[in-house]
C-alpha cells in the first residue's frame, strides 16, 4: 500500500508539473499583453509587468479594430459549425443506413476530401469565387470552410451512427415517427458527444484559418481575427503590448469553447438506451 501511495504521489507531482508547463504560455501571453514597448525592449519579457497597461485591450478592441475582427470571426465560425454539423449528420446517417452497393464509393468520395490540402485548391477556389462575384464577402469564407469541414465530420459521424442499434429506429417507426422525426428526435440526441467533437475540430480549423481569409477578403468589414492581428505588425514599428492583447482576445474564445463541450465528448453515447 505504501508503494502504491508513493507512486501516486510521484505521478501527481509529474502531472502538476506537466500542467504548469502547458499553462505557462497562456500566462506569459497574458503578462505580455499588459506591457508596453519600453518594458518589452528593456529586457523584461518573461517577468511580471512593472506597470499593468490595461489600456492595451482598449487599443486593440477599438483603435486596432480587433473588436470588428472578433465579431466577424464569431459570425463566420458559428455559421460554419451549424451548417456543416447539420449537413454532416444527415449525410452520415444516410450512408450508415444505406444498403446500396454504391455506399462504399460514396463514403470513399467524401473521405478523399481529407487528403486535399488547402494550398492545392487556393487558386481554383479563388477563380470560382471571382466568377460568382463572391470575393470580399462572408460567403467567400463560409462556403469554402463548410466544404473543408464536411469530409472529416462525415468520416467521424458515420462510425457513431453505425454503432447505434437499428432496433431504436424500428421502435420509433412503430410509434408513428417518420424518418425526419426519427432523425431529429431520436438519432441526433444520441450522437451529441460526436457532434461536440466535430464542433470543436471545426471551430479550431475555422477560427485559426488564415490562408483563405487573407486571400478572399480585402476590406476590414469582412476581415477575421487571424488576418487582423497579422496586420497589426507595422512596417517600421509595432505596438507589441496591443498585439499581445489582441492575441489574448483571439485565444480566449477557443478555451471557453473547449471547456463548454469537453464534458459532452467524454459522456457515453447510448449507455442504458438498449437493455438486453
Largest sheet: none
SSE order, as H and E?
HHHHHHHHHHHHH
Q: Note the gap between the termini.
A: 39 Å
Which structural class should the secondary elements be placed in?
mainly alpha
In total, how many beta strands?
A: 0
Q: Can you give the helix content as a percent range? A: over 70%
**Range of strand content:** under 5%
Q: What is the radius of gyration?
A: 24 Å
Q: How many alpha or pi helices? A: 13
Runs with pLDDT <50, length 5+?
268-276
Shape: globular
- The overall average pLDDT, rounded, is 84
Description:
This protein is an all-alpha fold. Helix content is 73%, strand content 0%. It contains 13 helices and no strands. It has helices spanning 2-32, 37-41, 55-63, 66-97, 103-111, 118-131, 138-163, 166-174, 179-190, 192-207, 211-216, 225-230, 240-266. Helix 7 (138-163) runs antiparallel to helix 10 (192-207), helix 8 (166-174) crosses helix 9 (179-190) and helix 10 packs antiparallel against helix 13 (240-266). The protein is globular and about 70 Å long. The chain starts with a helix and ends in a 10-residue tail after the last helix.
Write the layout of secondary structure elements.
Blueprint: H1 2-32, H2 37-41, H3 55-63, H4 66-97, H5 103-111, H6 118-131, H7 138-163, H8 166-174, H9 179-190, H10 192-207, H11 211-216, H12 225-230, H13 240-266
Amino acid at each position: 500500500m505504501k508503494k502504491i501511495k508513493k507512486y501516486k504521489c510521484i505521478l501527481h507531482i509529474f502531472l502538476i508539473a506537466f500542467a504548469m508547463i502547458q499553462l505557462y504560455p497562456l500566462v506569459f501571453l497574458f503578462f505580455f499583453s499588459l506591457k508596453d514597448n519600453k518594458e518589452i525592449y528593456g529586457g523584461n519579457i518573461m517577468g511580471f509587468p512593472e506597470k499593468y497597461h490595461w489600456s492595451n485591450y482598449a487599443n486593440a478592441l477599438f483603435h486596432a479594430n480587433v473588436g470588428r475582427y472578433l465579431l466577424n470571426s464569431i459570425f463566420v465560425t458559428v455559421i460554419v459549425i451549424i451548417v456543416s454539423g447539420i449537413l454532416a449528420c444527415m449525410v452520415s446517417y444516410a450512408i450508415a443506413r444505406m444498403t446500396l452497393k454504391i455506399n462504399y464509393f460514396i463514403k470513399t468520395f467524401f473521405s478523399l476530401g481529407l487528403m486535399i490540402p488547402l494550398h492545392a485548391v487556393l487558386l481554383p477556389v479563388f477563380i470560382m469565387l471571382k466568377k460568382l462575384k463572391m470575393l470580399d464577402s462572408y460567403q467567400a469564407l463560409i462556403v469554402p470552410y463548410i466544404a473543408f469541414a464536411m469530409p472529416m465530420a462525415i468520416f467521424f459521424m458515420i462510425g457513431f451512427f453505425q454503432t447505434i442499434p437499428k432496433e431504436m429506429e424500428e421502435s420509433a417507426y412503430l410509434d408513428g415517427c417518420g424518418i425526419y422525426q426519427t432523425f431529429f428526435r431520436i438519432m441526433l440526441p444520441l450522437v451529441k458527444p460526436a457532434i461536440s467533437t466535430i464542433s470543436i475540430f471545426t471551430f479550431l480549423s475555422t477560427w485559426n484559418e488564415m490562408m483563405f481569409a487573407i486571400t478572399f477578403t480585402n476590406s476590414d468589414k469582412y476581415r477575421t481575427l487571424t488576418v487582423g492581428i497579422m496586420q497589426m505588425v507595422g512596417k517600421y514599428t509595432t505596438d507589441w503590448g496591443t498585439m499581445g492583447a489582441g492575441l489574448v482576445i483571439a485565444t480566449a474564445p477557443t478555451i471557453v469553447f473547449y471547456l463548454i463541450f469537453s464534458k459532452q465528448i467524454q459522456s457515453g453515447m447510448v449507455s442504458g438506451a438498449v437493455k438486453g
